[in-house]
Specification:
about 55% helix; about 5% strand; membrane; two-stranded antiparallel sheet; P-loop_NTPase; alpha/beta; transmembrane; GTPase Era; about 550 residues
Amino acid sequence: MKLLRRKEGPSLDTRVSALLEAATLGEGRLPEEAVAAARAVAERAGARTGLSLDHTVAALAGATGSGKSSLYNALAGEELAAVGVTRPTTSTAQAALWDGEGAGPLLDWLDVPHRHSAADADGSGLVLLDLPDHDSIRLSHRLEVDRLVELVDLLVWVVDPQKYADAALHERYLRPLAGHRDVMLVVLNQVDRLPPQAVERCVGDLRRLLEGDGLADVPVLAVSARTGEGMAVLRSVLGERVAARRSWAARLGADVAAAAAHLGVAEGEGKGLDKGVDKGLRAALARAAGVPLVVAAVAKGHRHRAVVATGWPVTRWLRRFRPDPLRRLRLGMTASPDARPQLPTPEETEGIVGRTSVPGASAVQRAQVEIALRDVGASAAAGLPAPWAAAVRHAARSHAAELTDAVDRAIAMTSLDATRRPRWWSAVNALQWLVFAAMLAGGLWLGVLFGMDYLRLPQPPLPTAGPVPWPTVLLAGGALAGVLVALVSRLLAWLGGRRRARRTGKALRTAIAEVSDRLVLEPVREELDRHARFTEALRLARADV
């Protein structure tokens, strides 16, 4: 027969580490009280695991008159605590030790100075505390109870037939400690005052109340410290818990689970970043940054510089009186009009603000960017609990003030390529000057011939190209060729300008996408990843495996 092995959950150390990680991740996003409580639990767990694990600290807690001290004496086998009838007699906790060797540091940590060795030989490893009354009229007594209830390994709640239904006990202690059912016992003391039938009814009613508190599985023992009724069963249950040497781990595990539950207000599965959620943001940033204006300026600037570089030398100088569209926007240009554009060094770009003269965004465009940022935050925060949804929305706008300068810087750096000179410009420029030189030579040649004729000097032989003299061919042909080359170059410049504008537009949008990803989407992803790690740590802390 195949045996099924029970799957073991994470170790206590793993759960404590996970709780501490969840508290760290939740800092600034969760209520400060819950984060501090989780850190305190983790610190307490670390301290307890460093002390004696061979001892189990059990605390007798109850109201005035419930008979805690009587039960304490009965279990210890001698009169260690003073017994009162109506007024509280225990002002500070005291401890009875069964084989207390090595328990000193543990009791020092618990800050229990009064210690006694129990006369009863049974129960090795048990450290039994007699606590003050939780309903004492003295505040110091109640604070002492609250302090030790958070620290002990095993809680033994002592009630009596008259006050077992006390609302203060159930609402202040039992109900909030519902997750600690594995380290809790409820003892109905003084049953010798009731007839047997009444004891059964009383125990049944007490179980009903405990079930309402979420403690249906907690053992309920009916005893009488005065007559000894039920004491053997109580000693047996305590002995089993002590022998197991696991109450301390169960207590700390319950504390970790409770602290994780308080942090759990920030649980919830978000949808994450939707695909394409940043398209609206990129489009809004592109419009606000004047990308359409820059793209148009790139096309016009390309044509302008092409005419200056490849136009007919006779008329191209007129083009220089027209401003370069890119120069007007301070894009991709150096200080000298004739200088070739150069990439700036990292030192030159560091800390520069307002690198371009692109017109600023209008009020409508700024509003569109704000709406796009809110849309990104709202989309990423969908499905998340309120604390983390607010953090995600804040992350989406955390660098809003830097967007304008970052986009302007990206446009300036990306536009540097828009002024690079194509190689064919240099070739055409050389051709134009060659044609211009031929035209000039023809003109000079004709001028010399005209001067010789004017001075009635004999004419030298004149070569011809067919019926047309070569000086005329050079002058007219050079002028016609220069104009034709300029027209063809202008057509090529127009096509090249369109192509360069498309390429620049694509590069600008890519640069803007990188800016939006770095300053908007990346912080959002980090916040979503933080929440995912928080959720995973919380699941591990609660041992939900």
